[in-house]
Amino acid sequence: MNSKYRSVFSAATDQQRQENFENYWEFTQHHGGELFEDDKDLSIKRARLQEFMANPVQLRTPLANPNAFYRNYIEMKDDPKSLDRMTLMLTAMYKFARHEWVGIKAAWDAIPNMKNAHTIEDKISRVHLAEEFCHVRLFDQMLKICGLSQVEWVPLNPVVEKIYEQFPKIPGFIMNTPAFVTELMGVTFYFHLHRLFDDVLANEPEVRNRLKAMLEEITIDEVAHVGQRRNFISSFDVQIAKALVRPFYTLFFSDIPEVWQLFDVEQMIKDGEAFDYNQIPDRIIEETWIPSYCRVG
Ligand SMILES: [Fe+2]
Ligand SMILES: [Fe+2]
Predict the structure, then answer these.
(1) What one-character DSSP code corresponds to residue 42?
(2) Among all ligands shown, which has an atom nearest to the Cα of 96?
(3) Which residue from 284, 269, 96 is spatially nearest to 188, judged by alpha carbons?
(4) Could you list which residues have their CB under 5 Å from ion ligand 2?
(5) Ligand in nearest proximity to the CA of 184
(6) Ligand 1 centroid vs 167 CA: distance in angstroms?
(7) Residue 1: what pLDDT?
(8) Burial letters for 125-154: b for 16+ Cβ neighbours within 10 Å, e otherwise?
(9) pLDDT under 70 in the chain at which residues?
(10) What is the pTM of this model?
(11) What pLDDT sits at residue 2?
């Protein structure tokens, strides 16, 4: 196969990274539209969500036991082996999105707002966070489509919340590498989740297609974030990032037992370590952003 793209762990010069920050900043403004800072929202993303909501879909067969979801979505109380795959999938989605939500709400208050964002990197980070809030809204909507209208976004326990609050205050040269690995983990998880929809929602074509469309909205952003966060780190640190993929994914998912039951975590790790853009469907490639040094020729 002819490769069009290089590994995301490829080296880049300082000059290339500077150019790519400028290029990403151009991209992200067109991609998300106007930033509504008070609402942590973006005009184009908001319109997309409204489009989805204006054309509702629902399950042909409602969830047999929504209480199984509500009992286990904050914390797994039952033996996960006793739960059906649909419930496990929905609790896993919530838990993944919840971690994202906790991380971004802490970061939103810690980083400069757009008025006080004086560097291109600060501006990029502000819009990036607004995009992440849009993802949480999409996940919330996905759960509602499955009949789960009582979902609450609950903070983690106070100790973990405090830890998340400290992250954005740690200097960039330390935090940028794990932040890149986190984005990479998101993309890997979403590709695996996309495939799981085919399996778990085989008899629910309307909901399956809608959840896929919503997840693709998120994945387009996340693929762009992977490149953007790659651009924050040096060629040396990107090798450290590669070594962090395995421990990082393992640690993160150790907290979500249903993930181990539904997904091939080993394959996720391998996909993370081997990440380039060659396997990504064209419709995502067309709308996302890729650093120039990850393109061949
Ligand atoms: Fe996200
Ligand atoms: Fe992201």
Answers:
(1) E
(2) 1
(3) 269
(4) 183, 222, 225
(5) 2
(6) 17
(7) 55
(8) bbbbbbbbbbbbbbbbbbbebbebeebeee
(9) 1-2, 173
(10) 0.95
(11) 66
